[in-house]
Specification:
The protein is α/β, with parallel strands linked by helices and 813 residues long. The protein contains 26 helices and 37 strands. Helices cover 34% and strands 22% of the residues. The longest helix has 19 residues. The chain binds adenosine-5'-diphosphate and zinc ion (ZN) (2 copies).
C-alpha cells in the first residue's frame, strides 16, 4: 500500500492522506499536483508533500483522481519557505499554497470557466475540447462540475489545462480585476515564405507589384535591427499602404500577429548601463563589501540619488553570474516608467509579474522561472512574485522597503513581503538589498543595530539640491482672509510662477472623491453606509454617495434623512474638489487628476502619466499614488494641500508614515534641472514631524519615534500580534470577544489589549472587535503564538462561538 500526504488549498492546518498505486508512487514526486476528492464530492487540486507507506489512522484513505504534472511545479525551497510563512504568520500551509499559485494551476470543481472570445481556431481542438468549446457557445460560463457532466468523466483537469494553454478558455477570477491589455499589431512572414533563400523567388513573383515589393524590402531593412516588426513602423517609416499590406497578407506571404504592449518583448535594442557617479560608485562598493559579512543591506539614498542605477549595476553582475534576481516593488510603484527603464538594460532577461497581468501571462512567467529560462532570470514584481519557483536566486532587491503595501492584509497569508523576502533569500543563500529614501523605523533600527549593513547616499544625481520646503499656516491665512477655497495665497503664487516658466506642478491630497462627508447643517447628521460603520463619501461627478469599504452607492439625497432639512453641506475635501477649484483659479492651465477613481479603467494610470510626461497636463492632482517611483524632470513645484489629516490618523505609525509620504512626494520636485519647491499647507506648522520634513531631518525623526515606540511598547522593541473577530450578530460577537479578552488577559496580563471596537466597527455587515497582543523583547515568540493558538482552539470548541470569524495578523504594522 502506498500513500501520499497532500496540501489542500483550504484553511485547515493538517495535511491529508490519499491512496496511490505502486506505479504512481514511483512516478509522483514532492511538488507535483494531483486532483483529489475532498468533502462531499468536491474536487480540488492538491500538492504532493510526501510519499509513504503508512495508512492514516481513523479514516480510510481515498484514491486520487489523477496526476496533473509530469514534473514538480513547486520545488523544495518553496515548500520550506511556505512552511515558514504558515508558521510565522499563523495560517495553514493550504492558505499559502492557494495564494502562491496562479489560479489557473488551482482548478477545483467550483472553478468557473469562461470562453476566450478572441479564439477562432476550432479545428485544432480534440473531441473533448470541442465539446467544451461548443457548450460555451450557448452558456457564457461553465463550472468544472458541469464540464465533468458534459464529458461524462471526472478526470477533466488536464483537458481544461490544455484549453487554457491554447487560449480557448480562461478561468474566472474573483480576486483580481479582469485586465485586458492593449494589443499591438505585428507582421511576419508566413511559415511558407519564412526562408531567406526564397527571397529572390518572392521578389521575382512580385516584380509587377512595385508597392508590395517595397514593403518586402522595407521589412528586411527593419529586420536587420529588430526581431519583431510593428505594422505601424512599416506604415509610418516606410509609407507602406494598407492596401499593399492587405494584398501581401491575402496572398499568404505575410501574416499579422498581436502582442500585448506591456508584455516584455525584447527588440534587440539594449542599452548600456549608466556609468555611476563618484558617490554612487562609493555606495556601490560599500554595498558589495557589506555583503561579504551581511546577508541584508539597507541602501538609504535620498530621492533621485540614483538608487535605481545602483540596483541596475548589481543586477548586471548577478545576471552575468547566471543567478536569478528578484526586484520587488509595491504594486503602485510598478509603473511603466520603471519597467521601460529596466527593459532597456535587461530586455532579454526581464519578466514582469503582478496581479494585474492576465492569468495566462502569470502562468507563462511561472513556467519560465521553473524552467530557468533566460527570459525570466530577472523578475520585476509586486509581493506575490516572492512565490515563483526560483531555484537559483542570487539577489532580492526590495525597493521602497518602507511601503506599507508590502504587507498583505487579506486574505491569509498575511505576510510582509520584505520580511518574507529576507527569509527566502536565506534559503537560497542569496543577498537582499533594501532601498528607500525614508526607511521604516524597523529597518533602520535593524541597520543601526548591525543586523543589516547600512549604506547611505546623500547626494542627488547631478548634484541638484533637495527641494526647499515651506510650511504654510492655513489657520493664519484663514484669519487674514488670504485663502481662496483650499488654496493659500502662497501656493497660488508659486503655481502661477511655475506655469509662467512652463514648469509642471504636482498637488497632493490624500483623499479621493469630492468631499468625503456630507453633513446636515441643521441637525449635524451625515449619511452612513448601511453595511459598514462609516460615513458615505460624496462624488460630485455622478452626484452620488459611496462607501469606500464595501462599494455601496446611492444617489445624493436632497434632504437630510434624519430631519428633512435641505441644508446638506459637504465637509472636508478630496482630489476632485481640488481639481475643480484649480480649474477656476487657473483657467488656462491643463489639469489632470490621478486617484483610484480616474485610474480604474484599463489604461487610466498609464494614460494620465503619459500625458503628464508629454506636458499635456500642467498641474496633476492626486492621492498617494503620486508619491512612488515617478521621475518627471519638469516638475518644479509640489504642493501638499493639507498635512493634518494624515498626522492625526489614529495609528502608532501615523507620524512615521506622514514623514515618509511627505518626503517622498516632495522628492518629485526638482529632480533634474533646478532646485524644486514644496509647499505644505497645515493648521499646525509647529508639529515636530512637519518641522523634520521641512529640514529633511530623518535621524531626528527616527530618534524621537524610537523613544515613543519604547515608551508605548511598540515595534521594533515589542512585537505585535493582532487578533480580529467578526460576526454578523453583535451580541454573539460581543460575548465571544469578552470571553477572549479574559483568556488573553489571564495569559498575557497587561500585554493583552482588548477587546476593542475599531474605528470602523462594521464592514460588509460584519461587526468587528479586536485584540492586540504585545510581545516584550525577551518573551518567546513561539510560545506566545502557541498560547494564542490554544486559546483559539478552545474558543472554537465552544458551540456559540464557532461561527465567529477568527483572524490572526502577525506583525500588523
Ligand atoms: P532614485 O531611485 O534614487 O530616486 P533614480 O535612479 O531614479 O533615483 O535617478 C534619478 C534620475 O537621475 C534618473 O532619471 C536617472 O536616470 C538619473 N541618473 C541617476 N544616476 C545616473 C548616472 N550615473 N548617470 C546618468 N543618469 C543618472
Ligand atoms: Zn438633518
Ligand atoms: Zn459600506
Amino acid at each position: 500500500m502506498y500513500f501520499i500526504n497532500v496540501i489542500l488549498p483550504i484553511p485547515l492546518q493538517k495535511l491529508f492522506t490519499y491512496k496511490i498505486t505502486e506505479a504512481e508512487s514511483e512516478f509522483l514526486k514532492k511538488g507535483m499536483r494531483v486532483a483529489v476528492e475532498f468533502g462531499k464530492s468536491k474536487i480540488y487540486t492538491a500538492l504532493v508533500f510526501s510519499i509513504h507507506k503508512e495508512a492514516p489512522v481513523g479514516y480510510e484513505a481515498k484514491d486520487i483522481y489523477q496526476i496533473l504534472d509530469e514534473k514538480p511545479l513547486v520545488n523544495e525551497i518553496q515548500l520550506q519557505h511556505w512552511e515558514w510563512i504558515a508558521k510565522y504568520y499563523m495560517c495553514s500551509l493550504g492558505e499559502v499554497f492557494r495564494s502562491a499559485l496562479p489560479s489557473a494551476f488551482l482548478l477545483e470543481s467550483e472553478t468557473t470557466i469562461l470562453l476566450n472570445t478572441s479564439f477562432k481556431n476550432e479545428d485544432t481542438l480534440s473531441e473533448d475540447e470541442f465539446l467544451i468549446f461548443e457548450a460555451l457557445q450557448f452558456q457564457s460560463q461553465l463550472s468544472v462540475n458541469q464540464i465533468m457532466e458534459i464529458l461524462g468523466k471526472k478526470t477533466v483537469f488536464p483537458i481544461i489545462k490544455d484549453l487554457i494553454e491554447k487560449e480557448v478558455i480562461v478561468v474566472k477570477e474573483h480576486i483580481y480585476e479582469q485586465y485586458k491589455p492593449k494589443l499591438v499589431k505585428y507582421i511576419q512572414f508566413t511559415q511558407k515564405w519564412n526562408d531567406s533563400e526564397k527571397l529572390s523567388e518572392l521578389l521575382e513573383m512580385l516584380s509587377r507589384a512595385k508597392k508590395q515589393r517595397e514593403i518586402i524590402l522595407a521589412y528586411f531593412q527593419l529586420k536587420a535591427t529588430k526581431n519583431e516588426i510593428k505594422v505601424i513602423e512599416l506604415q509610418e517609416d516606410f509609407g507602406a499602404s494598407s492596401a499593399g499590406l492587405k494584398s501581401l497578407v491575402d496572398k499568404g506571404i505575410l501574416e499579422y500577429y498581436y502582442i500585448q504592449t506591456d508584455r516584455i518583448h525584447f527588440d534587440g535594442k539594449s542599452q548600456e548601463i549608466k556609468k555611476l557617479t563618484t558617490s554612487q560608485t562609493t555606495a556601490f562598493k560599500a554595498i558589495k563589501s557589506n555583503f561579504k559579512t551581511k546577508q541584508t543591506v539597507l541602501l538609504k539614498g535620498i530621492t533621485s540619488s540614483g538608487k535605481t542605477e545602483i540596483y541596475v549595476k548589481l543586477i548586471k553582475e548577478l545576471l552575468q553570474n547566471k543567478k536569478q534576481v528578484l526586484y520587488l516593488l509595491p504594486e503602485i510603484a510598478l509603473t511603466t516608467q520603471l519597467i521601460e527603464r529596466l527593459q532597456f538594460y535587461f530586455g532579454e532577461y526581464l519578466s514582469v509579474f503582478h496581479s494585474k497581468y492576465s492569468m495566462n501571462e502569470r502562468v507563462e512567467v511561472w513556467n519560465n522561472v521553473l524552467e530557468k529560462k533566460q527570459k525570466a532570470q530577472l523578475i520585476l514584481g509586486a509581493r506575490s512574485s516572492l512565490f515563483l519557483p526560483y531555484s537559483n536566486l542570487g539577489l532580492i532587491i526590495v525597493d521602497e522597503e518602507h511601503e506599507p503595501s508590502f504587507k498583505q492584509f487579506d486574505p491569509a497569508p498575511r505576510y510582509h513581503a520584505r520580511d518574507a523576502a529576507i527569509v527566502l533569500a536565506n534559503k537560497h543563500n542569496a543577498k537582499v538589498l533594501l532601498g528607500s529614501a525614508t526607511p521604516s523605523i524597523e529597518t533602520f533600527y535593524n541597520a543601526t543595530q548591525g543586523k543589516y549593513g547600512l549604506v547611505e547616499l546623500n547626494e542627488r544625481f547631478g548634484k541638484v539640491l533637495l527641494p526647499e520646503i515651506f510650511l504654510v499656516d492655513i489657520k493664519e491665512k484663514h484669519r487674514k482672509k488670504r485663502m481662496k477655497g483650499h488654496f493659500s495665497d502662497d501656493l497660488i503664487l508659486q503655481i502661477e510662477d511655475a506655469l509662467k516658466n512652463r514648469e509642471q506642478v504636482i498637488l497632493f491630497q490624500n483623499r479621493r472623491g469630492f468631499a468625503p462627508i456630507v453633513e446636515c447643517e441643521t441637525c449635524g447628521e451625515s449619511p452612513q453606509c448601511p453595511n459598514c460603520d462609516v460615513s458615505l463619501t460624496y462624488h460630485s461627478l455622478k452626484n452620488e454617495l459611496r462607501c469606500h469599504y464595501c462599494g455601496y452607492k446611492q444617489a445624493m439625497p436632497h434632504n437630510c434623512f434624519a430631519c428633512g432639512s435641505e441644508k446638506l453641506n459637504t465637509k472636508g475635501f478630496g482630489t476632485e474638489q481640488v481639481e475643480q477649484e484649480l480649474q477656476q483659479l487657473f483657467e488656462n492651465a491643463n489639469i489632470g487628476r490621478m486617484d483610484l477613481d480616474t485610474t480604474r479603467g484599463k489604461y487610466g494610470y498609464q494614460k494620465i502619466l503619459g500625458k503628464f510626461k508629454n506636458h499635456e497636463i500642467d498641474i496633476l492632482v492626486g492621492t498617494q499614488m503620486l508619491s512612488k517611483g515617478l521621475d518627471f524632470e519638469n516638475v518644479s513645484l509640489v504642493g501638499v494641500m493639507n498635512a493634518d489629516a494624515m498626522l492625526n490618523f489614529p495609528d502608532f505609525r501615523a507620524h512615521e508614515r506622514s514623514y515618509q509620504l511627505m518626503v517622498q512626494v516632495a522628492g518629485r520636485a526638482g529632480r533634474a534641472k533646478k532646485r524644486g519647491k514644496v509647499i505644505i499647507q497645515t493648521f499646525n506648522p509647529y508639529h515636530q514631524i512637519l518641522q523634520q520634513v521641512s529640514t529633511h531631518s530623518f535621524e531626528e525623526m527616527y530618534k524621537e519615534q524610537l523613544n515613543e515606540r519604547w515608551q508605548y511598547k511598540y515595534p521594533p522593541y515589542y512585537r505585535i500580534i493582532k487578533v480580529i473577530v467578526k460576526h454578523k450578530n453583535y451580541t454573539t460577537l460581543d460575548e465571544g470577544a469578552q470571553w477572549l479578552g479574559k483568556s488573553f488577559n489571564n495569559i498575557f496580563k497587561e500585554n493583552a489589549l482588548g477587546p476593542a471596537i475599531p474605528s470602523i466597527s462594521k464592514i460588509r455587515n460584519l461587526y468587528i472587535q479586536q485584540f492586540i497582543i504585545k510581545i516584550p523583547p525577551k518573551q518567546s515568540i513561539t510560545k506566545t503564538k502557541d498560547a494564542i493558538l490554544k486559546v483559539k482552539n478552545t474558543f472554537q470548541a465552544i458551540r456559540n462561538f464557532r461561527p465567529i470569524k477568527f483572524i490572526i495578523d502577525v506583525d500588523n504594522y
